[in-house]
Amino acid sequence: MMTHDPLPTASIITVDETSIATRILEPPTASAGDIVLCHGTPWSSQVWTSVATDLSRDYRVFLWDMPGYGESEKSAAVTTDLAAQAVRLGSLIELWGLQRPHVIAHDIGGAVALRAHLLNGVEYADVFLWDVVTLDPWGSPFFRLVAENAHVFEQLPAHLHAALVKEYIAAAAFRPLPDEDVEALASQWLGPVGQAAFYRQITALSAADTRPVANRLEATRSPVRIGWGRDDPWIPLGQAYELQSRFPDHPGVVVLDDVGHLTPVEDPSAVTAAVRAWLARQPAP
């Protein structure tokens, strides 16, 4: 469950003429390091609210809404494919002045972070991947249906679109999410701008952008840990172990029981504990 204490007001950074909503959470005393959090779809950095708030007690935490998501620019002119988002991540890390930050990524945020590292040369201290989109096949049946028929779904009346988005988000979890969490996560996709952006970002996502990443996993230069919900309905747990076999040194896998695809929202305390243990370099349980 997400904490509903608000995150700081977003600062807007322009990268390649695209407006990106960013936030920096500062610890009360000296920082133990820099952490960059990457979200997936159809989410925003909001999924990291609880985890980011906890980690910011000791670390500087950097959040961003990918263009096309959250409070970032959602215009039809914005490119939202994974290749473009990976370039933007590298640009943000440079603009923030970070040197080899810790990176924690969820869903397509994992593909973005890995692509920035493996194809664009961005260096990390380490990376923790949660229920990430990397290996074929990916995308829920609904995701694939929309991707193939976006022109039809775009024409839905607003109330039917809202119901569809909320049901889609709720279906990512193993157990029912609180209504307020579903409402908060769905809010960015409502209204004329949000509705159009929702279908555009789905259409822009393609396995053609993840296959070059999957083919280079053995070249990963940063230590890796993998986390997964045991009952992930969108990407089965078996992919976590397939990823493990492809990375150098066969990184540890953390599996959360009674959790689906939305690990940072469904069990933020367990995610935070796993991340803190990883940063302290304790063995995976």
Automatic annotation (TrEMBL):
UniProt keyword list: Hydrolase
The species this protein was found in: Gordonia jacobaea
Domain of life: Bacteria
Molecular-function annotations in GO: hydrolase activity
Pfam families: Abhydrolase_6
Coiled coil: none
InterPro entries with a match to the protein in the record: AB_hydrolase_1, AB_hydrolase_fold
Designated name of the protein: Alpha/beta hydrolase
Domain AB hydrolase-1 residue range list: 35-274
